[in-house]
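debug: dumping io for the single-chain case to check the tokenizer round-trip. Nothing else runs in this session.
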Amino acid sequence: MEYTELEKSKSFIIVEIIEYVPNSVVIKTIFKKSTGNVSAVSFDSGETLTDRISPFDNFIQIIDGTAEIIIDNKRNKLKTGQAIIIPAHSANTINAKERFKMITTIIKSGYEEVCM
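debug: decoded output
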């Protein structure tokens, strides 16, 4: 998989950096470091990411459309502008009953202090 960050020091419109693709989930990395990453993701209607568990918290912000995010069997419906944090080690599923776009931010540092 080819990985390229967006150009630094150049403005962009976040909702326009990723396109919808029929029958697909598309992920575009905005930037990626050893301490975490930020990505834009688009979901076509009917697509799902199921049974995911991350060792890190995941901040999700909806930038277009409406998403269903299930965290430990609790359903959350988020609309454009809304956000949620998926806690580390929580089972989660992301459903697209209609197409939507989101930004996902994972920060991997800081857990060392909690685990000590």
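debug: round-trip ok. DSSP finds one helix and eight strands in the chain.
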